[in-house]
Amino acid sequence: MDDFHSTTYSKRICKGHIYCTFVEGSQGEFNRLILKGNMAKETPCGESWLEPLARLITFSLRRAIWEGTVDKGILKHLAHHRCNNMPPNKDKVCSCTDAVEKCIREYLKNHSVPTV
Fold it and tell me: What pTM did the predictor assign?
């Protein structure tokens, strides 16, 4: 049986927080991403998009780490989307997907995964 451990990062979004949990295998390799949030009743988009987004990002991030194209691929496409409900903030988060991108970037930096 494999041992797994996880690391969670959070970012403030328009009506709450988004939590990105990175699950790793026993060798420290990236296994999957779990997205959670506490914004279900307070935002128009709710949490219905979190599970499919987490699955797509997991697939894309595994491939990008393997290929060494993280910056050119998944991070580039998650960053800088704008949400009209997002107020100005010190982290310069523009939307929920932008918050996820910042969490992924932080995870990769802290786990010495090359992004270029």
Answer: 0.83
Kindly state the helix (H) or strand (E) to which residue 76 belongs, with its residue range: helix 76-78
Q: Return the higher-pLDDT residue of 50 and 9.
A: 9
CA 91/CA 30 separation, integer angstroms: 25
26 half-sphere exposure, CB direction, 13 A CA radius: 3
Contact 8, 21 (CB under 8 A): yes
Cβ atoms within 10 Å of 107's Cβ, excluding its own? 20
Tell me whether strands 5-13 and 30-37 are parallel, antiparallel or unpaired.
unpaired
Exposed (0-12), middle (13-18) or buried (19+): which is 45, by Cβ within 10 Å? Answer: middle
- For 18, the token pair is 């988004």
SS3 7: strand
pLDDT tens-digit series, residues 33-88: 999 887 655 655 666 778 888 999 899 888 888 887 777 778 888 888 888 888 88
Q: Give the integer Cα–Cα distance in Å for 105 and 103.
A: 5
